[in-house]
Each structure stands twice: as structure tokens, then as C-alpha cells.
């Protein structure tokens, strides 16, 4: 697969001595211009979350209105329908964390297995998994639903968690990562010392795989957090909804007879609040990347 | 490269390591897929119930103009959006890696953040920004005395969708490529420095070749993402129902067949064919790019 | 860890078994014409209402818990779990998948009038006649009862709220341009031209290009009979007949002239347009006035309500857009309690009044429409006009005989892509009606129906 020179990826920050360590104002300005583009919609969301229903429909979208209603809107979001929004956030966190942790572990085990053990059927099985990445997700949702209904898993947290545990892309990533980051001679040395395979995995390999593990964890976390279609089909009990389905439900209510557009500030503010936990997770997990992926710009 | 020595005990250990993943994989992916395949061999009618029809659904799909139109549209989307997105991701990754940025950590996070935004929310935000009369883009154009572009019209819709997807995933690709750059062995840089290569030369002759596998991977995933395009057009449908019809993308078509037309069996067949198209395109891309590397 | 692994194994094994033993999931069973089941005796009903029971009720009416509490107070043995499983289409999607899987369906469900045939064709609703539903007929406005009853007199659901159509108009804009509220469609067209010529930034109305519901309501008013079922397998589709073409020519013409707007409704743009006075009227249903009042606060006091313009001077006809019913799912284990719950919710004086005054659902019961405390409300938003009274009057003018197809999702989606598209693109709307007819016919035949045109 890859012919790159395998090197030991250590957990210390080994910064390659890249040439040209002068800071460039021009390049920085260019990147900041791009940053404006990437943050503009989020700025709109932030502004919109501070508006009353009336102002949402009558004031200029990219600037604040006279009424600053953010606190009121946040209060409304958490008060609506007996505080169901808080439940949605908790559900989402539960599904995302359990799925991401489980998926990353399965990928680490599997990726290491595929990378470092030339067992029979290795290539064929791996090819099968890679092929599965190509399966349109919508094709799976309905048959999965029908099967889950037979075994009584519909409308339970398992209906969301189990399908999210499979991450073929994560397996691929871990395999590539394990190939480079786990040197064969370390394994051989451990085996000669008489360590069992599982012990080697937990004590030696996992440490080497940590950055890759965190990466898969993060990607699965995002994927599950943002999953909309699967829970939409699987869950009918609103107290089990993740935040995406809940928000879409609220957005739908803006069109119901006797309903009201007063729901729209809820949707906007709820959307804003739903993004915050992930951004915080990114910030917290950045530390871990730094160990393996070394923070950009911190170069000696 | 995997070692080719395979002691029986090592074999067993390998199986042990992949077993958890493979069990869940079979239960959650292979079994539902097999079931979908089984369903695609039947026809179920509101009047007349279920009958076995063999490959009829596939025959019908291959001559279905709406499906073909959708496949061509996502192919166009792929050609339009993917190069742009990967180029941006690559530029950002190289800029971050060059060490020449102020605020690099802040910039990196800022560009990556859209990836954390659920597509439900992304479509809501961009849909508002695109608004043909009262949307900020239209209003800005109005202030400058320009005609407001009809971003939700038939001509520009594909570009507008491409923009949303690029916004969501450019940062994600940046991180993948950036991670690959961080893994470039220091010796290579040292060798380049000894040869007296400047920053640009190093980027061109050391960094880019090192990024090859990561770029290939990003490209394959973009193929899959493009051909499976679903969330964004589905969420934008309400804003421009006459532009985004139920067969706008193949995945949207499969969804509408299953849920609007109650034709689960045909939807399964369409999904299968779409999977085949994706496999074929991915394989072609891979072949084209790995030809010269043996 | 091992625990969950066995669980996965079990799930995989169960799935495999299921694949081997199952023949394509529960298909659509045809509703055969059965004689009505024997009536349930009052003793059985009393017995059932005293037995501890749990019901699940899917609805998207906000805060309906209050009305449910009234029922639970009267029948303490019965507990009702209220579930908001989505509004409209998402809920129907869930309901259908649950029905297909044979588990997870509710006992009682909110269904819009137009979707009833879509669920009776797959034999999923319970005929409520044995539970005394026929006796309720006189409580409801005539046309609503026609909407919930089947060909052989089955009662499929109990009406919950309605949407007879009228016209909300901006009195200030009309006054400014010297326009009288149009009483006929001819006057309406003339007003549209006059207004747009006077002020290019304003349109007399917006006929949303994504709103099949409003189109069907206008067709209903014009006397259209687009879908009629001769039997369970025979359907008459005529969405391009003379009446439909009249409608298509009229609206298509105004759209081509550019004097009315065709923006998609219930979007940000549309809300803003309402607030900023882009549309001088909204042709809407009886649930519209309250909706507008909470969504276009900027324009308070400027709106008034009137009946729809008529096709012939002096006529007095309307159609319906929206409104819902409570239906009982056939698979319920507690049919008596479920049927009585649907009945109580929509006929109990206290419950119906609460729905009209707290959730602002427009009532289908004669008693409430005549109730002064409902009809004589004078909302400030409409300059103190008794809007409810206007719509109560309109409710009596809705024709009884309008029917819906047994595959509504498909006809709506096809409309969006033919007729709706022609409105958005300002292309030939009458020709689009022919395409619509063609697509529905093709679909119906592929589903095994015999189609008469």
C-alpha cells in the first residue's frame, strides 16, 4: 500500500526543521480572509439567536437588532415542552460518546489486526470492508429498521448506537496508521520477551496508536452527533431524540396550523447551542492531537 | 508491508483482533445489505401484494431516465466541487505546515469548525444567506447596485450546494492532509535543506509526494460523498422545490421511492446500482492514480 | 463487553433467522369490503374504561397534554402517553415503517383529512362504527364527516380541526391603492394587475409553488372532483379536466403576467415577505389568522379577513386546506379505550373548547362554531374584526364530495414537479396539469389500480 519510510512516531513533539520559519503577514491575511468565509454563517447564527421572532423577519440578518433577546431565547429553548431540549442534548452526547468510543476501539483492534497479522483471508476481508464504504446509507436504514423491529431494538438507544459502531473508514485509517506507527521490531522484541498478544496490544500498541485512535474517535463523534436520517427512522419517542431530529421537528412545527413562528427562534437558538459541545470537544481533544500531530505553528 | 511469515498462532491472534469489528460489521452492514438485495427481487403493490420479479427492478432502473439524470448530475457535482475542496484543503494544510502563520491554531480550528456543524443546521444557515430577496447576499448586491444572483435558481443551485459541501468539508480535508504532513520524516526535510531547497521547492518535491496516499484517500471519500449526496439537497428542497425535484440526486431518488412512492423494492435496486457506480468510479480513480506507483 | 458482544451475536442470529423465515415484510393487505362488525355493548365499554390501560397517542398539537388530562380525569384507569413523532410527513413515514414492521405503532394517531385514504388502502385504520361513532355525525360540520367516512359508511377517524379557506388581506395596502376586497376571481385578477402596476414591489398574492394543499383547496372551491374511488381497485383520476384547466389557465396566466408571486411558503423568505408587505393578501385556511398574528407581528392591525373570491358573482363556495383527525390504528390491543379517547378528545365540550382557544385549532363541531365566546373574539391584529365568525361562516360553504387518492404523497410530489414547477418557472400551467395527470396514472397503474380518466 504505502512505501513511505516507516519511522517511529513518538509521543513527544518532534518538530521537523522546516525551512522558512519567518511569519508571513501576507499569508496570514489570506488565511484570515478564508476564515471569514468559514465563520460567516456561524456569525449569522449567533446574531439570529439574539433576536425576537419579529426581528428575525424584519431586521438585517448579519447585524444585531435593537432587542437583545439571547438570554430569553436560551431560557425558552430549555423551557419548551418541559425541558425536552436538555434531554436531546444528553441523548446526543450519550449516543455520540458511546458510539465513538466503541467504534474507535473496534477500529484500533481491527486496524492493528489487519496491518500486522498476515492471516489467511486478510486481503479479501479488508477489501470487503472497504467496499462497504460505498454503500449508500439510505439503502441500509430501512432494512436495518425492519430487522431491528423483529428483535425489539427499535425506539431504544441501541438502534442508534449499534449501526454507528461500524466505521469502515476508521478501520482503513487505523490500518494505515498502524502500518506506519507500530514498528515490527518492537512487536518482535515484546514477543521474544514472552508477552501475550493482548498484553502487547494494550501496553505497547495502543500507546503508539493513540493519535490515530483519537482521530477516529473524533470523526465518529462528529458523524454520530450530526446523524439525522437514522434516528429519524428509528425513534418515535421524543425523549429519545438526538438534537438534530428534535430541531428538525421544531422547524416543522413552524408550518403547523395553530402552531407559530415563535418556534423559529427556538430552532435558531437550539441550533447554536447544539454546535457548542462539539466545538468544545474539538478544543479539548486538540491537546491529544498535539501529542501525535504536533500543533501547527509551534515549531522550533 | 505486512510480514508474510504466518505462524498458526499468529493467524489466530490476527483473527482475534479483527473479530469484534467483523462481527458488528456483518450484523450491521452485511445482513441489512443482504436483506436489501433480497427485497430488490420483489415487487410490492398496493393492489395485488408482493410478487417475485427477479431482476425486473434492475432492468427498470437501467432504463430510468430520472435515475440516469441524477447520476450525471452528481458526476457533474463531483467534477465541480471536489477539485476545489481538495485544493483548498491542500492549500490550508500547506500554509499551516509552513510555520509562517500567526494565529495558526485559531485559524486551524476556525476552518475545521464547520465540520462540526450538523448538515441540518448548515442548510438552515446557508439557505438563509442565499435568500433571493431578503438574504444578506442579495441585500449586499442590492447596496452595491448589482443584480442579486438567484442562488436558489436552476442555474446556480448546483454551485450553491457545492458551496455548502465545500464549507462543511474543506476543513476536514485540511486536517487529514495536515496530519499526513506532520508524519513526514524529518530526514527528508534535512536532505532537502542540504540540497538548498527553499520553502516552495520543499513543498513541491518533498511534501506533495508524501501527501499522495492521503490525497488519494481524500479523493476516494469525496467520490463516495459526492455520489451519495443527500442531506444538503434534501434540506434545501423546501426552499426551491421546483429546482430540486425528487430525483435530483440518486440517493434522493432512492429515498423518495421508498418513502413517497412506497416502492421499497425498486428503491433497494436503485441503491444497489448506485453502490456499483460508486465502486466503479472509485476503482477507476484509484487505478488512474496508483498506476505509476508499484 | 462480552455482554454486548453476545447481544450483537443474538441480533445477528435473529436477523439471519428473520431473513430465512420472512417473506418480504408485511405487505399491503387489501381492505376487502367487509360488513361492519357488531356493535360493542355498553357493558363492554364500561368494563373497558374501568380496566387499567395504557394508550399511546401520536400527535403534533402543541401542549395537547391539557386535553388529555381531562380524559384521564374522567377515566382514571386509562393512561395516555402523548408522543410527538413529527409533524405531518415525518410522522407518516414513521407510522408506515412501524406498520410494515408490525411493531411500534401507536393506538391513536393524528392524521390529516387528505391522508385517510392513504392509510385505509393498507388496511391500517380501525372502523369506529362498533364503538358508537355513527352517533357523533350530527355534532360535526357536514363536509368534515364526509371526509372521515368510507365508501360503505365506515367511520375511519374523528375530525379534530379544519381549514376552510378564506382571504386575509392588507386593508392598508388596499386603501392606499383604492382597491376593494375582490368578490370574484375576475375582480381579483383586475386588482392584481392594478396593484402591481402601481407598485412593482407588491403582489396581490403569493401562490406558493410548493403548496399542493392550497391548490387542492382552490380546486375544491371551483367544484373539482379530481380523485374518486369506484371500488378499492378502481380509481378515477381527472386532474386535467375542465375545472382543473380553468384553474390552471387562470393562475398560470396571472403568474405569466408577473402580477402575482410564487415564492415557496413557510420559508424565511416568505415570512420576511409577509412582514415587509410584499403580499397584499394571503389565501389561507381558518388556521391562518392566528398563525399570521404570531408570525407577522410587524403588520398588526393592518389585516382583515374575507371569504375567497368566487367563480361566479353571488356564489358562496369554499374549499379546505389542512386540518386533522384522530384515528385508531387497527393493531391496537385496546380498541374500545382508543376509540373512546378519540371520541372524547374531539367531542367533549371542555376539550374541544380548549383546543379552539388554547391551541387555536379551528373547530369542526357545530356547537363551538356557534359558541359566542369563540365566534365573537375580536383580535387586535385584525383591527377588532370577528375573524372566527368570518371563517365559521365559510366553513358551512365547503363542498361535501371532495375525495383524496389512496397514495397522497405521490400525487403531491408529482404536483410539485409538474404544476408547482410551471408556477415557479412561469411556464405553461395547463400543459403541466396534463403531465401531472400522466404521472399519477402511471403510478396508479404500477401499483395495480385500474385507472379511469
UniProtKB/TrEMBL annotation, chain A:
Membrane topology: Multi-pass membrane protein
Pfam family, one: BPD_transp_1
Keyword Membrane attached: yes
Subcellular location(s) of the protein: Cell membrane
A GO cellular component entry from the record: plasma membrane
Membership in a protein family: Belongs to the binding-protein-dependent transport system permease family.
Record-given protein name: Multiple sugar transport system permease protein
Organism: Nonomuraea rubra
UniProtKB/TrEMBL annotation, chain B:
A GO term from the CC aspect: plasma membrane
Membrane-spanning segments: 12-35, 77-97, 109-129, 156-181, 210-230, 266-289
Lipid bilayer topology: Multi-pass membrane protein
Main localisation: membrane
Domain ABC transmembrane type-1: 71-285
Keywords, in A-Z order: Cell membrane, Membrane, Sugar transport, Transmembrane, Transmembrane helix, Transport
Coiled coil: none
Protein name, per record: Multiple sugar transport system permease protein
Compartment(s): Cell membrane
Family as reported in the entry's similarity comment: Belongs to the binding-protein-dependent transport system permease family.
SUPFAM superfamilies: MetI-like
GO biological process: transmembrane transport
InterPro entries assigned to the protein according to its UniProt record, in alphabetical order: MetI-like, MetI-like_sf, UgpAE/MalFG_permease
CDD domains: TM_PBP2
From TrEMBL, chain C:
Membrane spanning stretches: none
Leader peptide range in chain numbering: 1-28
SUPFAM superfamilies named among the record's database cross-references: Periplasmic binding protein-like II
Domain of life: Bacteria
UniProt KW keywords: Signal, Sugar transport, Transport
Record Pfam families: SBP_bac_1 (PF01547)
Residue runs in coiled coils: none
Annotated InterPro entries: Bact_solute-bd_prot1, SBP
Matches recorded under PANTHER family: ARABINOSE-BINDING PROTEIN-RELATED (PTHR43649), BLR3389 PROTEIN (PTHR43649:SF14)
Official protein name in the record: Multiple sugar transport system substrate-binding protein
Annotated source species: Nonomuraea rubra
